[in-house]
Amino acid sequence: MMQLKKTALMLILFLSIGIHAQTTYKRWPDIIRKSDAAWFTTADAKRIAENVLLYQRDIGGWPKNIQMQDELTEKQKKDLIALKKTAVETTTDNGATCQEMLFMSRMYAQVKDERYRESFLKGLNYLLEAQYANGGWPQFYPLKKGYYTHITYNDDSMVNIMNVIKAVADESDYYSIKPSKEVVEKCKKAFDKGIDCILKTQYKQNGVLTAWCAQHDEITLAPANARAFELASLSGYESAKIVLLLMSVNKPSREIVTAVRSAVEWFEKTKITNLEEKRVLNDAGKIVDKKMIPTANAKPIWARFMDLETNEPFFCDRDGIKKKSLDQIGSERRNGYSWYSDAPQEVLKKFPDWAVKNGTKVGASEKKNVNYITVAQDGSGDYTKIQDAVYATPAFPYEKVTIFVKNGTYNEKVRIPEWNTNVVLQGESKENTIITFDDNFSKIALGRNSTFYTYTLLVEADDFSASNLTIKNTSGERGQAIALSVTANRVKITNCNLLGNQDTLYLSGKEAKQYFKDCYIEGTTDFIFGGATALFENCTIHSIKSSYITAASTPEGTQFGFVFKNCKLTANPEAKDVYLGRPWRIYAKTVFINCEMGSQIKPEGWENWSKPEAEKNTFYAEYNCKGEGFQPTKRVKWSHQLTKKEAVQYSIENILRDKITNWYSPLK
């Protein structure tokens, strides 16, 4: 009897050990993530680890859709060894590479085999090498021709990569393998670049930020097609993981906060609560049909593909033709693809707590938040006037204060005083959020300096930014009349219309640096003038009549004055004789680089404003411009055509460098 009990006890012990020593998961991703830590010490885990090492190419990446736990024949092993140097099919699609790196980390935590550590680090280096200069990642690296080169959010590919890199950059304990400090620093830079790319690819509908597409062109960042049934569209699935990644950033910038808030608003706008998906399964548990059933008060779902302009869901078969409902496409695509998702629900669940923590708006019932103020003429915001919102902002705040201005025409003079630093003035849309006033020199009538009081918007506070606005002086041709006056440092104006006649834009401030991007600026005489260092990128500079574009008053000894890069110089038909500039003060500096100049630009280009001494002291130059107005051989002799070596010095970093590093970056 005692022997029988002893045998039974040993059998129970053997069975418990056997159960503990094996994994019951059949899918490779589940084996990685769901297996107990102790399992990674087993012979089975070590066997699988050998497979994983074989599948890893020398470049560091892995192919996708491999069941690594499957037994390999000797021939298969030899074939994999031969493939190692080829980098064939290495990818991050469908979780590839990222999940194998996690497996190696979990193995190394239990079994200190240096090959596991080296494998992980090779994978990490692969991810870093695969990143584009703009911060995005392709689906395959080395690059594979076709849509695979697009920046790929599809199936969370780029988010998976960034989560790996973030864990390393944060020096968290998620991975058991700790890279060198040098690699950690590379990961920090790569993550920041990735966030920059995410912010730049967030799609705008009529100037309003929404969500993201599954693919974006790696050059233009525009929405892009993939397979025939994967047309460019806003994604209800992929956008959710992107937002959760943004929400994971510690101390997010105002741009990140804006991106998250905008995406949440879009999720609320596009959720579907009157449909429910019904799946029909066969005896083997395989989906044989999907139907969308009208259901009152259904749990929210979102379409995987939504029209870029209307947000309407659409569906495609392999013919690439848009259909309005799921039942209009064939069963192969209908049943073999995920067309709806509830993933954004996790974002909406986490957003309220995140919003309170990060100083953004949750809803009308929350307490007043001085870091986010809404202006709306219909009374739906915190204030109906922009200036009242400015009065409500704290002096010298530690964090950015966003004043969000809803569409409307605001007929008021607005001043951002010196103590209201860190203000973000953000319009709902450039075309329909308009700040306007009609002061001019004669109307002000305060003597010879009356010009400087004519502004519609005056910025005296450092670290100011404005976007999606039209700023206008409507006095017409009644002499000097400023639309926007900036006398502050580290000022960034993006996607704005600046409209006026004479003296539209005044830029000043001691050692001030100012940045204008994607703006439309129009006027007549000297409509961009002042002594600040200012960079204009991708702007349209429009002359209403024959006169002068710039009148710089750059202080003596200042390295840069006005710099125009990749701008387009246009004009009304009646404006046939336009100068690039004349010197308000004799040390004026103005340079045009890679700009397109219309026929309105006079061949001589520059004028000395009856100041012969200016010809010796000004610095007027151009480089690599084009268009009928670019006639370098006919320019005044005292102007310059830059060499390539000289032009390189006109980088955004050199022009706008300041004690606050990269203040002009989209992440700041």
From TrEMBL:
Organism name: Flavobacterium tagetis
Gene3D superfamilies the UniProt entry points to: 1.50.10.20, Single-stranded right-handed beta-helix, Pectin lyase-like
Active site as annotated: D526
Entry's family note: Belongs to the pectinesterase family.
Signal sequence annotation: 1-21
Pfam families documented for this protein: Pec_lyase (PF09492), Pectinesterase (PF01095)
Protein name according to UniProt: Pectinesterase
MF GO annotations: pectate lyase activity
Keywords: Aspartyl esterase, Hydrolase, Lyase, Signal
Top-level class of the enzyme under EC nomenclature: hydrolase
Pectinesterase catalytic domain: residues covered: 373-657
InterPro entries: Pectate_lyase, Pectin_lyas_fold, Pectin_lyase_fold/virulence, Pectinesterase_Asp_AS, Pectinesterase_cat, Pectinesterase_Tyr_AS
EC nos: 3.1.1.11
Catalytic reaction list: [(1->4)-alpha-D-galacturonosyl methyl ester](n) + n H2O = [(1->4)-alpha-D-galacturonosyl](n) + n methanol + n H(+)
Pathway terms, separated by semicolons: Glycan metabolism; pectin degradation; 2-dehydro-3-deoxy-D-gluconate from pectin: step 1/5
